[in-house]
């Protein structure tokens, strides 16, 4: 049927009509809320380039976790800022490290919250790279895997539900799976940062996590923004190695990659709505250049429409509040 008999506008006339034909339903269930854990007590240090985001000491992380649970957000992901950085990032696998402590306290306060712990070393190393360096200054893949195994087991001992390796090391998912299983943690899941791009959108995160590389960049291990077929290969490897969930990061400039991965794979798919995406909306919103709430909801809906089942987002609590009023 063609115009004038068929008129698509008929089902857009009223809000209830639009509700009936809406294809994508954003829900609080979709959100994973990222939190930065730092040493100390009663620390709530604002991240300048990410208004509304803070470095939080363990007690404050628990307060924030309770807020998330009250808002109906099902899951948190924790990033640690250690007391002391070193060449290998050893505090990442210290059972008394900040993320381990935070995980235990969150589980005590709100056992139903799913705790994901990011497994990487850039926050923990003095040089800011995602693993152990060779003498030539490259990241040593296989030496880093050993440390990832140590970190994953430490996070599992702290009671986390999901370990999320984000360093783009080859073989990281299989190595972590074996390391967890060897210690009896067969119920701890792996959310793999499978297609993680070397992106300029991570800028504000590096301030939040104090993880900027001290020399060079991460292009030798993170993916080239120009590649999409390579993302499919990366995801296939993680699936074969035993990933329970897969991820595309960042989200906004990679919606096509999210859609392709969605089409090719059946595993739950996460997308990371990263710090730079958040910061752009905050900055434009503060200047009155955009309607912040509207653009935030549109962005999150777009990420879900592209195919993400879960969205890691700093907007989680703000978006949850808007969804609760609908
Ligand atoms: Zn890293």
What does this structure look like?
The chain is of the alpha/beta class and 326 residues long. 39% of the residues lie in helices and 16% in strands. The chain has 11 helices and 10 strands. Strands 1-4-5-6-7-8-9-10 form an 8-stranded parallel barrel, surrounded by 8 helices. It starts with 14 loop residues before the first helix and ends with a helix. The mean pLDDT is 97.
Question: How are the SSEs ordered, and which strands pair?
Answer:
Blueprint lengths: L14 H7 L9 E7 L6 E3 L7 E3 L1 H13 L4 E6 L17 H12 L4 E6 L21 H17 L4 E4 L6 H11 L6 E8 L6 H7 L19 H13 L3 E5 L5 H10 L4 E5 L1 H12 L5 H15 L3 E4 L2 H10 L1
Parallel strand pairs: 1-3, 1-4, 1-10, 4-5, 5-6, 6-7, 7-8, 8-9, 9-10
Antiparallel strand pairs: 2-3
List keywords for this structure.
single chain, 326 residues, alpha/beta, 11 helices, 16% strand, globular, binds zinc ion
Calculate the terminal CA-CA distance, rounded to whole Å.
Answer: 35 Å
Principal-axes geometry comes out as globular
Q: Spatial order of the strands in the main sheet?
A: 1-4-5-6-7-8-9-10
Kindly state the number of beta strands: 10
The biggest sheet, with number of strands, parallel, antiparallel or mixed sense and barrel status, is:
8 strands, parallel, barrel
The secondary-structure element order is: HEEEHEHEHEHEHHEHEHHEH
Ligands in the model, by name, code or SMILES, are: zinc ion
As residue ranges, the low-confidence spans are none
Based on CA atoms alone, the radius of gyration comes out at: 20 Å
